[in-house]
């Protein structure tokens, strides 16, 4: 069974972002040879990160039990595909989306979502797609996601049919890669970040908690993220 986690940064009902996310899911469900189990996160209160750095120091966020974000983390870890969708607000992701990303920042230091596939779905009425897509692509890369695909739609420019055709193509490719067990591809941002962090965690100034995680998981023995999935 393919498990999909979806974060929708748009809290408005029946938005264009919802439309494309739902279409992506429908294409997955239409494939009779793949079972899809979906975790859909929307309209759920998430507390803002308070910058206490406790997650970096002891691997636990003080807010997790207050808003059940620990369950959200579990859903992400139990998924095969991570989808982040958001409209563009002031040339950036929505505040709700940024809060979500802030709460999983620690994972960008330990590649917690390594080997899961990432899908980005963004929409805008006018501008900001490049800025948002580049940002989310880097975020997903630093989390360890692979085979990252980007689906974008500009309402005053793009044809809806064209975007739906793009979704159909990406879903077809995704399904084929899963069926054939095609080797995952990590972005250059993922590999560059891995190299930089590896050099840092062997230093005396390294965060001890994160360094222990790297030691426990054997990450220091990895030549690269690409090589890690061969171990």
How would you characterize this protein structure?
The chain is of the alpha/beta class and 231 residues long. The protein has helices at 16-29, 54-58, 64-67, 69-77, 95-102, 107-110, 129-143, 160-179, 188-201, 208-217, 225-228; strands spanning 2-8, 36-41, 81-87, 117-124, 146-154. Strands 2-1-3-4-5 form a five-stranded parallel beta sheet, with helices on both faces. Strand 1 (2-8), helix 1 and strand 2 form a beta-alpha-beta unit. Helix 1 (16-29) runs parallel beside helix 8 (160-179) and helix 7 (129-143) crosses helix 9. The longest helix has 20 residues, at 160-179. The protein is globular and about 55 Å long. The two termini are 24 Å apart.
Could you tell me the mean pLDDT? 91
Oligomerization status of the protein chains:
single chain
Class based on secondary structure composition and strand pairing: alpha/beta
Give unreliable regions as ranges: none
Q: Helix content range of the residues, please? A: 40-55%
> CA-to-CA gap between the ends?
24 Å
Order of helices and strands: EHEHHHEHHEHEHHHH
């Amino acid at each position: 069974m393919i498990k999909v986690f979806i974060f929708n940064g748009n809290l408005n009902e029946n938005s264009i972002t919802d439309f494309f996310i739902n279409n992506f899911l429908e294409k997955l469900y239409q494939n009779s040879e793949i079972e899809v189990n979906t975790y859909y996160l929307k309209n759920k209160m998430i507390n803002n990160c308070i910058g206490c750095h406790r997650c970096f120091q002891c691997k636990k966020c003080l807010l997790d039990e207050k808003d059940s974000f620990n369950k959200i983390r579990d859903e992400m870890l139990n998924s095969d595909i991570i989808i982040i969708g958001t409209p563009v607000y002031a040339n950036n992701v929505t505040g709700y989306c940024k809060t979500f990303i802030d709460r999983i920042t620690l994972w960008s230091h330990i590649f917690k979502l390594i080997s899961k596939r990432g899908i980005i779905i963004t929409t805008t009425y006018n501008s900001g797609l490049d800025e948002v897509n580049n940002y989310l692509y880097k975020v997903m890369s630093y989390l360890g996601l692979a085979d990252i695909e980007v689906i974008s739609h500009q309402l005053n420019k793009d044809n809806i049919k064209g975007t739906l055709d793009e979704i159909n193509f990406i879903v077809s490719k995704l399904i084929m890669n899963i069926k054939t067990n095609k080797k995952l591809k990590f972005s250059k941002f993922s590999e560059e970040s891995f190299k930089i962090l590896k050099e840092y965690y062997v230093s005396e100034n390294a965060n001890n908690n994160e360094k222990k995680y790297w030691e426990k998981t054997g990450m220091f023995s990895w030549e690269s993220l690409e090589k890690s999935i061969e171990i």
